[in-house]
């Protein structure tokens, strides 16, 4: 019910009761068709834990995470290719700002291919073959690793929200009001599992507001000047 939580582990289960609950289960990388995560087909976490600097590195998706890690590996000496499905990388930034990053990428030998649709990746044992379409043609790239950064999925599918009756969107995001409160008045949600930008400082802010609301303070989120930073080279910032 909406006042108890059952935690299931491998060999045990425990039930906890609560007066108020804040759900903050975060998100996970999206795995797309044809790109099953493995040794050479990576999510963003895998991209941070490579045992070596690759000579050839392919990034699927030119958003925040993809552009940041592409920039980092280019600085380490890798030849990086970004495959972006839309007409531009970093769509949430102004064009003039994006151009600064593109100019920097060009100087460091980063190849950016826009309007490119990733089809599949094949682990060849010593590397990976990435197939994509661009300009109406199917093409391939041979690389040491490919990293998929096409977004994240909220970790709400295994929480039993439907049993309690907590409302979610079609994407699995939990619907909340300005206090982070769900349609169940004692259950709150914050961070990547609610609508809006998936930013760490946004989640912290939402957690503060939710805690204040639970304690009886008049508090509400205000996203009018929410900062966002992209740690490329050069770095970008916006609100």
TrEMBL record:
Superkingdom classification of source: Bacteria
The keyword Oxidoreductase is annotated on this UniProt entry: yes
Catalytic activity: N(6)-[(R)-dihydrolipoyl]-L-lysyl-[protein] + NAD(+) = N(6)-[(R)-lipoyl]-L-lysyl-[protein] + NADH + H(+)
Domain FAD/NAD(P)-binding: 10-207
InterPro entries cross-referenced by the UniProt entry: Class-I_Pyr_Nuc-Dis_Oxidored, FAD/NAD-bd_sf, FAD/NAD-binding_dom
Family, as annotated: Belongs to the class-I pyridine nucleotide-disulfide oxidoreductase family.
Protein name: dihydrolipoyl dehydrogenase
């Amino acid at each position: 019910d909406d006042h108890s939580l059952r935690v299931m582990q491998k060999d045990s289960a425990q039930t906890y009761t609560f007066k108020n609950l804040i759900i903050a289960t975060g998100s996970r990388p999206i795995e797309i068709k044809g790109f099953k995560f493995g040794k050479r087909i990576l999510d963003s976490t895998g991209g941070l834990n490579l045992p070596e600097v690759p000579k050839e590195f392919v990034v699927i998706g030119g958003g925040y995470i993809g552009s940041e890690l592409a920039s980092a590996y280019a600085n380490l000496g890798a030849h990086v290719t970004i495959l972006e499905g839309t007409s531009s990388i970093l769509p949430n930034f102004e064009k003039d700002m994006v151009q600064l990053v593109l100019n920097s990428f060009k100087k460091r030998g980063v190849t950016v291919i826009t309007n490119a649709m990733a089809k599949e990746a094949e682990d060849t044992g010593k590397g990976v073959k990435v197939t994509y379409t661009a300009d109406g043609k199917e093409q391939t790239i041979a690389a040491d690793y490919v990293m998929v950064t096409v977004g994240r999925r909220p970790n709400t599918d295994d929480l039993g929200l439907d049993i309690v009756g907590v409302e979610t969107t079609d994407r699995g995001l939990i619907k909340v009001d300005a206090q982070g409160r769900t349609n169940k008045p004692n259950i709150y949600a914050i961070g990547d599992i609610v609508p809006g930008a998936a930013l760490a400082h946004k989640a912290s802010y939402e957690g503060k507001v939710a805690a204040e609301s639970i304690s009886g303070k008049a508090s509400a989120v205000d996203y009018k000047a929410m900062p966002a930073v992209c740690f490329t080279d050069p770095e970008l910032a916006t609100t």
